[in-house]
Specification:
The protein has about 475 residues and is α+β, with helices and mostly antiparallel strands. The chain folds into 2 domains: about 5-235 and about 400-460, FAD/NAD(P)-binding domain (3-Layer(bba) Sandwich); about 240-395, Succinate dehydrogenase/fumarate reductase flavoprotein, catalytic domain (Flavocytochrome C3, Chain A, domain 1, Alpha-Beta Complex), CATH 3.90.700.10. The chain contains 11 helices and 21 strands. It has helices at about 15-25, 70-80, 85-95, 100-105, 130-145, 195-200, 220-225, 290-295, 325-335, 340-350, 440-460; strands at about 5-10, 30-35, 50-55, 110, 125, 150, 155-160, 165-170, 175-185, 210, 230-235, 240-245, 265-270, 300-305, 320-325, 350-355, 365, 385-400, 400, 410, 415-425. Strands 1, 2, 6, 7, 8, 9, 20 and 21 form an 8-stranded mixed sheet that branches. Strands 10, 12, 13, 14, 15 and 18 form a 6-stranded mixed sheet that branches. A 3-stranded antiparallel sheet has the order 3-5-4. Strand 7 (about 155-160) and strand 8 (about 165-170) form a beta hairpin. The two termini are about 25 Å apart. It comes from Afipia carboxidovorans (strain ATCC 49405 / DSM 1227 / KCTC 32145 / OM5). It holds the Pfam family FAD_binding_2. Its cofactor is FAD.
């Protein structure tokens, strides 16, 4: 079966896809979305998000102060270690200033930013009702505008004439159907749910990874694009990876399995040894390094340990902490060597230099003569009961994707931009995120480049 041609065909159903669809439709283009997931699980990882990071010049009803473009750029450089396409990064940051108003115009609502350990009240806007509410608002707007949406629809082939897209082959049920379009937008996420692909970079340890988001992001569209001559961008091992509760499900555990308590205690591996500075920086700028750190430890598991003074200082997760009245008892419950854990805690406690504890700033509570150090928020573990969370690497999304230009056009291996193929969201996030992560920036990438891709695809189709 061959479907009627549309102006814009979009593969994907999350934030980037919907921003692209709405943008294209508001340009007057006819738009069709094909989403591989069933309707209940639509939206990829957007379902699990909470906020987005956008530059802004002044405080608003939901933001406590300005967040200038240059500060945003400096934050990005810091978390990526400079591994970013600076032209695209600056473009995205500049465009992000319009996104909060534009997203609101599409029906999304924001709430005042959360307090506590996140410390994002000035930089990030939180969705009222979370990511699913944000997603549902975009779907309502897209449907009201006449965007055609199909679920359980997997793109399994691309038909091209040179570098010009002609049609996609889409599996719906038992049949593979031909969907022609005048332009194509890939917004189908990364490949984090494809363990075999992860193993190409990580090896067998990828079997111990947990996938925080959708099980439907298996990289099918990305593989088709790379096979069709799209220029790859990024490293197969680079990804948004955080430390999540080791008791989380293999797939789709979402935001509620993340743990924000690293800065309030110590983190040890299977040998009951610390392996990194838990207080290196403000948590939103460092939480996304911990997945990779845990991945490098024996059996890809670690344990966050803290005492009763810190129990109420962070947002609770899905699973309760493991509790014990002594460090030895806690070690036994974690199947760690009690002597080794007691030695680690005793050495840590002896190195702590008291200061003015303040979880909202880089305080002066630190260790001396300890390797690795704890640079901030160091307090002795001495007030029972004691608590622990077991953690494993939780992969949110991968950074290997397609290279794009500032028009969101996919760059081909011969160095030219594709005639009518665009990409937005996680499938091209590695252009901006070569490594590392800052809270909320994934939604910024999807929204900005989705909107740009939608406009560009519509303009091409209507020429």
């Amino acid at each position: 079966m061959t479907w009627e041609i549309v102006d814009v065909l979009i593969a994907g159903g999350g934030n980037a896809a919907l921003c692209a669809a709405i943008s294209a439709r508001r340009q007057g283009a006819s738009v069709r979305i094909v989403e591989v997931a069933p309707k209940f699980y639509r939206g990829g990882n957007t379902r699990h998000t909470r906020n987005m990071r956008c530059a802004h010049d002044s405080a608003t009803e939901t933001l406590t102060g300005p967040y200038p473009e240059e500060e945003f750029f400096e934050d990005l450089l810091r978390v990526t270690g400079g591994n970013t396409n600076q032209e695209l990064a600056r473009f995205m940051i500049s465009e992000s200033k319009e996104m909060l108003d534009w997203i609101t115009e599409q029906g999304v609502r924001f709430q005042p930013s959360l307090g506590g350990t996140l410390g994002l009240g000035r930089t990030n806007s939180f969705f009222l009702g979370g990511g699913r509410a944000m997603l549902n608002a975009l779907y309502r707007t897209a449907e009201a505008l006449g965007v055609e949406i199909h679920y359980d629809a997997e793109v399994v082939g691309l038909e091209r004439d040179g570098d010009e897209f002609q049609a996609a082959r889409v599996r719906i049920g038992e049949s593979v159907e031909n969907m022609p379009a005048r332009s194509f937008i890939a917004a189908a996420g990364g490949f984090e749910a494809n363990i075999d692909w992860l193993k190409q970079g990580w090896g067998e340890i990828a079997d111990n990874f947990l996938i925080r988001g959708t099980p439907y992001n298996r990289g099918g569209v990305l593989r088709l694009l790379l096979d069709a001559g799209a220029q790859p961008n990024g490293d197969v091992t680079q990804c948004h990876a955080v430390a999540i509760d080791a008791r989380a499900p293999k797939f789709d555990g979402g935001i509620i399995t993340r743990l924000d308590c690293v800065v309030f205690g110590i983190v040890v591996n299977r040998n009951a040894e610390r392996f990194y500075d838990e207080g290196e920086d403000i948590w939103p700028k460092r939480y996304a390094i911990w997945g990779r750190l845990v991945a490098a430890q024996p059996e890809q598991i670690a344990y966050i340990i803290f005492d009763s003074r810190s129990l109420k200082l962070f947002m609770p997760s899905l699973f309760p902490p493991i509790r014990a009245d002594s460090i030895s008892e806690l070690a036994e419950k974690l199947d760690l060597d009690p002597q080794a854990l007691n030695r680690t805690v005793t050495t840590f406690n002896a190195s702590v230099r008291d200061g003015d504890f303040d979880s909202t700033v880089l305080d002066n509570c630190h260790t001396e003569g300890l390797s690795p150090p704890k640079s901030h928020w160091a307090r002795r573990l001495e007030t029972p009961p004691y608590y622990a969370f077991p953690v494993r690497p939780g992969i949110t999304f991968t950074y290997l994707g397609t290279k794009v230009n500032r028009e969101a056009r996919i760059m081909m291996q011969d160095g030219r931009p594709a005639t009518n193929m665009f990409a937005a969201g996680e499938i091209m996030a590695g252009n901006v995120l070569g490594q590392g992560y800052a809270a909320g920036i994934g939604m910024t990438i999807g929204s900005v480049f989705g909107r740009v891709a939608g406009k560009g695809a519509a303009d091409y189709a209507q020429q």
